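Page 47, continued from p. 46.
Same chain as before, 308 aa.
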Amino acid sequence: MRAIEQDRFGGPEVLKLVEVDRPEPGPAEVLVRVHATGVNPTDFWHRATGGLLGRPVRLGWDLSGVVEAVGVGAALFRPGDEVFGMPLLPRAAGTYAEYVTAPSRHLARKPAGLSHVEAAGLGLAGLTAWQALVDIADVRPGQRVLVHAAAGGVGHLAVQIAKARGAYVIGTASAAKHPFVRGLGADEVIDYTTTDFAERLHDLDVVMDSIGGEYGPRSLRTLRPGGILVALASPAETYLEEEAAREGKRARFMIVEPDSAGLTSLAGLVGAGQLRVEVDTVLPLEQVATAHEIGQAGRAKGKIILTL
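Result:
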């Protein structure tokens, strides 16, 4: 089968199309023929550093495809079922490939209303937003929620999830992307290039920060007592927990985890017309280096998808 592999760390040029053996599903696993896979910022980091992966490095965690075979005890799915998900993170999943094996409970049935291209953009980004806003922050009706990078892969889904939970949603984005973010349901959009959100906003209930760095301390300033900041960018953000506690606030750093129940909840929002996946760019697998270049430029609106 075709797959993307790298034997050294570096820029997009290290990504190579190779032929490798098709895997076989083990107990409680399924073999999925991948129709599309998403490109995510964690892919760039692992490509450049190796991260938590061994060698050779095989990138990719998002997938949408069709179950080809099932291992012993994998009772949730049958061959021919359409599935999507984010298997194995932070371990290697290698979804930049024609076939992938995954624990069956790291996947869910693909929403009928989504194409494989759209569903491939929902797993990692959607679960990140869901776990941050629902599992950790427990966003409730009437709360004021700030979503940084609201036009990005995670951000554009987070805006919609927060709105579906009944929140008043504020997003940060460049001016050119304001119509898009408002179209997602955001009540306010702040141009981060001209306006200091930390000076403008106060008494927020929840902030979701996928940017990191100085955005963390500045975001803490916008929270009400008891409000929560969910940081996604770097384990270094754990220092914010102590700083928040001194101010009577809360902060949590999280890494997204495989979650079949969360995937099913996201699929439910799609079915209810409360969640859609914006696809910025679609490229064939062999143009993976170009996909990484586009993603790292930081100008994509929504998701970048590779098709097989």
